[in-house]
Amino acid sequence: MYQRTVIPNGTRVLTEYIPHVRSVTLGVWFETGSRDENQDQLGYAHLLEHMTFKGSERYGQRDIAEQMDACGGQLNAFTGKEYTCYYARVLDENLPLAVDILQEILMFPLLATDELDKERGVILEEIKMYEDTPDDQVHDYLCELLWPDHPLGRNILGTRESILKVKRSELVSFMQQYYTSDRMIIAAAGNVDHDQLVKLAEQFSGLVRPSVTNTTKRPITNVGQRFNKFKEIEQTHLCLGGPAICRVDARKYVLHLLDTITGGGMSSRLFQELRENRGLVYSTYSYHSSYRDTGNFGVYAGCSHEQVNQVIDVMQEQLTALGTQQIAQDELVRAKGQLKGSLVLSLESTTNLMTKLAKSEMNYGRIFPTDEILAAIDSVSILQIRDLAQELYNPAKWSIACVGQANEPFYQSSLSEGRLT
User: Fold this and answer.
1) Looking at domain 2-206, what is its CATH homologous superfamily?
2) Rounded to whole angstroms, how far apart are CA atoms 285 and 276?
3) Which of 42, 49, 98, 320 qualifies as a FRET site for 196, CA 20 to 30 Å off?
4) Which residues of the chain does CATH 3.30.830.10 include?
5) Is-contact 299 263, C-beta < 8 A?
6) How would you classify the pairing of strands 295-303 and 2-6?
7) Which of 16, 31, 49, 82 is catalytic?
8) How many whole angstroms separate alpha carbon 421 and alpha carbon 418?
9) Is 361 known to be catalytic?
10) With respect to CATH, is domain 226-416 assigned 3.40.225.10?
11) How many Cα atoms occupy the beta-carbon half-sphere of 261 within 13 Å?
């Protein structure tokens, strides 16, 4: 059962009570992320997330670690392009401790200069680790092609230069600007009493600073772009993609099903054709990202350098076919079963339930009951999927990013014949 309360400072408190578990996952979310960074603030949202864990007026960094270890709890955080989440998973009896620690690090963080100097090194190592994972990098290169002059096209980690130059005062200013009560959601799932959490959430009552008006402009999406980064690695990593729908588009479940059919599992068209039928790849999949005013889809494959053109051609064949040929009824039934099953199974996790609560509130201002979502998936027709495939899987709108030793050969693919510039 979902419950929702807005406390006096504007913070939204959401819970889902699950009586048969002994744990609670608590999340404190802020509707801010790397999208809110200016060009001279790259990586600030992510660095701030790290710095809050370095201690507060009452809890030092080691105190926080020891308190959570002593109760067997987990404390972590992550930064996205449009949100930042701090969360704890604890026994139900330790919920007050989790709230207290999160309240301390988010309302009274020290953000000490000496700790900032240390954390620069941590972030720089994280950037190096990221640069050693080309199968991650290639997706960011695609985003840069799609949104070259917008924060959505930038990497969340920032750059070496931006991390080395950031000052404590700049982090404090960023936090004061965006960590405000009207942007905050406190969500919990598990063996949690809603009224108790509302009372505990009032500890955040000092967080009332007025929020700034969102000035981030809607991005203009580029199409037909390409990028190749030469890197001496054993595989070439490809990511083909283009513009897609935003998160409030009524066709969101149509997109989920199209994505599932394209590259969402072992029975998907990409997996079957690229791996099972032709043996060209080990890993291939499709995905989509939806933001408040735009979105993108991507198709990934890792292959040998010599087979890049062939893999791209197969990608093109499979995507084009989805918009021009009839989708079989059994394929749609299978995709619906896969999507519904994965959704229901994921919601057996209190962490996933907590995330569903917060994202539903942020994205739509309401909580969608699971049965309503399942019914919406069931209502999607073959014609709706084909229409969306025709819109998105249009070669004229595709861009492609490549990391590996393929160098320039992929320019000779059929994708480059008058369509990619």
Assistant:
1) Metalloenzyme, LuxS/M16 peptidase-like (3.30.830.10)
2) 13
3) 49
4) 2-206, 226-416
5) yes
6) unpaired
7) 49
8) 7
9) no
10) no
11) 27
